[in-house]
Amino acid sequence: MALKNFTEDENHKTVQVLFCSAEFIRGVDGELIFLSALHIFLSVTAFLGNTLILVALQKETSLHPPSKLLYRNLAITDLCVGIIVEPLFVTYFTSVVNERWDICYYAYWAVVYLALILCVVSLLTITAISVDRLFALLLGLRYRQVVTYRRTCITVTGFWILSIVGASTLFLNRRINSWYQYIGTALCLVTTIFAYAKIFVTLRHNQIHVQSHVAQGQPSQAIPLNIARYRKAVYSALWVQGTLVICYLPYHVTVFLTPQRGMPLSIYLTRNFTASMVLLNSSLNPLLYCWKIREVRQAVKETLRQFFCRSS
Q1: Contact call for residues 301 and 295 (beta carbons, < 8 A)
Q2: Which of 30, 105, 283, 300 has the lowest CB atom count within 10 Å?
Q3: What contacts 114, CB < 8 A, 6 or more positions away?
């Protein structure tokens, strides 16, 4: 398979030569049409699922407001994927099939830029959820005083500003943008791993402490019940975190293994299929919320019950 050579400083020329070129993209119309249909389906499911989650979170009152805000922000990014990024992906694929290279060029850059913003916000929010769970364990009664709704709003706003500014380096210097992604991803992963490791070590220590009290004839019912509820919240967050890693990892591995001086057509298709897995995460998250978070599941059931009652 012939390779198309390009330099890292020629971003716009690279798109024209590789991703929006009849010479390079030839004989893959069937695969691109399939990807278009897939993204239409993912767009609908992401829109419906995350809209339902946002309505349910608005009605749910038992979750701590800062924690609910983080899940709401995650649902908003997933909703934006469904109503913005997915349609742009379809526009890009159809423009390639129909050889509308002027539309293809702008659709490609819009997809890359907006998807980068939303993916970074999602990663930062997932990391913040892990830190929030750690604070809930370590701070105890001081948690609600330290982790307030106002501080969480400021943090979430900072996530969006940082993501937009960082993604904008894509048009200035590709190398800076790559380092921004690598360093940011590494910091988020290290923070998340540390948070959950600290959580499970502390939970283990508390379990041993409770067992020693029981052995001495001093049972305490409040601590085990609180720990049990907290453990469920941690596992729910872990499911969301693990699903994100599973969906994102194949794409990043593919990008990492892509030749720096060229790209086979097979790698081009692989990148598009693995990018679809990244966007699939936005459709899976609503299912995880309903499955693993009891309060959200109850709110979703009540919302659906009210909707169908009004419809009938």
Answers
A1: no
A2: 30
A3: 80, 84, 85, 88
